[in-house]
Every structure is written in C-alpha cells, then in structure tokens.
C-alpha cells in the first residue's frame, strides 16, 4: 500500500520554516533540540518497538510548556514533522464505549490494529501492508472452521455484496483518518485553522487547535493510494461533506489527542483518540494464514 510522500515533504518544509520551535514557549533550548532530533535523522529507538525517545506526553517534571501564541499553521506543520518521524503510537479511544490498539504509519508498510467497543459489541480491524482484515463474530467463526479474520479486497463481492467493499473502505478510511502526520499536514494546508485554547490532556499541557475543511479538498492531500481514492473519499463523506478536526499538541510538538468528525467507520458523532507511547509502540502483525478466511471463499461457503 505505497502512498505519496506528502508527510515527509511537509516535515522538510517545517524544518526550513523553522516551524519546530512553534510548539514550545521556550524559543529554543532543549525543546527545539528534541523536536529537531525527532524531525531529523531517525534513531533506531524512534521506530515502533524500539523503546522510543519520544515521551508520548508523559507528565514528568520539567516538561516543556507549549507556546499558546504560536501560529496554528506553524504548530500543525511542526507537529506533522515530529509525528512523521515517530512512525507509531498506541491508540486509545475516548468516546463511545472505548477501544484501543496500535498504529505504525510507515508509509511503505502501514500496520494498524484497532478494537472498537459500542453497545455491548466489539469490532476489531487489522491492516498490515496491503492486507485489510475485519474480525469474524463467534457464530460466523464456528461456521468457518474457527477462523478469526476475514480478509477484504476493494472489489469484494462485486462492489459491496454482504458489506465486503464497504468494510474494506471503512478500514482504509481509518488508516488516513488516524494517521497523525497526514492529518496535521493536510489540515495545515487546506483547513480553516483556529486556536481554541490551552488545555491539559492526562495532566500534560497542550494547545488545542481546530481545523475545518471540505472532505473533497482534504482527500486530495491525504496519502490515499490512487486506486482507493474515490472509495475512501466516499466513505469519509458518509459522516458529512465537511470535516472538523481538533488537535491537542504538547510542548514537544507531539500530537497527544485528536477528535475528528469523519472517520469513515459509521460511529455516532465525533470520535476522540489519544496517542501514547509515541515512537515506541509495538507494530501490529498479520494473522496466520490458518486464521484467515478470504472474502471470496466465504461467499462460496
């Protein structure tokens, strides 16, 4: 699932503009060095599973305070650069009945594992490289020799029979809706930006920014493979033609929390996700072949 190098280009732009100082009120010093390190050459510890240098927004004494007067566009671009180089984080859903997972947004091999809980039920989705999977409920699994995952394809069941194509589109939409570097950079370029104010996220000082933009305009800037662009755009627009995204950015230019109105997964109202263990979260792995049922095979059965 190779995607355009938009976020990398934005990271380079942020460095050239000096945008990495936009998140901290210190005007340089250790915070600027930390941000530059995150946005420059990536040390091995910054890759998922490497025990990353990024704190993920811990409340340790002496944590840099974000600059509440920073230009919103500069702040989003600076955070995009830092989050691009972090490459991964744990996800926690703070809306509905909750949910959690992990996301590695390496542009050449994205890996997402996410569990969403609502109304007493649980939906699990998995994306590893070009493979997209949705979990099978216990009753269906029993009919499929105990297989746990259904592998989806863009043209599943001729464009939507039994929900195959729609499920594929919803997971593909989540990959861009929750990709922090992509969302930050696309909204910095296309959104009507505002600074909401200073707020704490799990005890950490952040500045809360808001972006409003048409989905059609944002989708052109998001790293969606050409063959999936219309499918993903249509899925995102099921939550409305216009997008509102809120970002909470700390003094190290890390995105700690995001609320978006357009996730493409059919949930009620805006969805809030927190990013923790930034730069050090484990990477999701593809399920064993013995646990997977291909969509076409399921229809045959």
From TrEMBL:
Composition skew (Gly residues), residue ranges: 48-60
Ranges of Low complexity composition bias in the record: 34-47
Signal peptide annotation: 1-22
Keywords: Signal
Region entry Disordered, spans: 27-69
Name of the protein in its database record: Lipoprotein
